[in-house]
C-alpha cells in the first residue's frame, strides 16, 4: 500500500515538476487591410489604415516538458491601439477621415522546440474589440477569431530565471472580404478593417 501511494505521488508530481512559467512582452507592427466600397457606378472609395506599433503582454504555463519538446498554454492582453484611417477616390489624394481602434485578450496553446535557435508554433483565440469614428460618429463590435503564431529566438541559460528574445509573426486564420458592400452593417465593415498580421519582437523571462 505504501509503495502504491509513493508511486501515485510521483506520477502526479511529475507533470508539476515539468511545469514552467513564462512572462513575455510583444512589441511590433500591426498591419491592416485596404478595403474598398463602390459608392457609384465606376467609382470606388478606398480606405486604408496606417500600420501601428502595438504592445501586448503574455503569460505562459508549460504543462509538458520532455527533452526538446514543450507544450504550453498561454493567455495574453493587448491594450487599445489607435490608427489613422485614410480614404481616397480615383484620381484624388488620400485624406484622413477617422480613427480605428483595436484591443484584444487571448488564450491559446504553443508547441516549442528547444535548440540552439528555439522555434515555437501555435494557435491563439483572440477576442478583438474593434471601434472606429468618422466625423464624430462612431461604432464598435467584437470579432472572435483564431490566430496562428510562429516565433524563433534565443534563451540565456540560467539556473532559475531564463531571459529570452526572438522574432514573432502572427496572422488570423479567418478574415472578412476587403470589398465592403455599401449596405453592409457597421459590424461587418469594422471586421473587414480588422488587423491582418503582426510582426515584431517577443521577449521576456521563463522561470
Automatic annotation (TrEMBL):
Domain of life: Bacteria
Keywords annotated in UniProt: Signal
Signal peptide: 1-20
Name under which the protein is recorded: Outer membrane protein beta-barrel domain-containing protein
Species of provenance: Geothrix edaphica
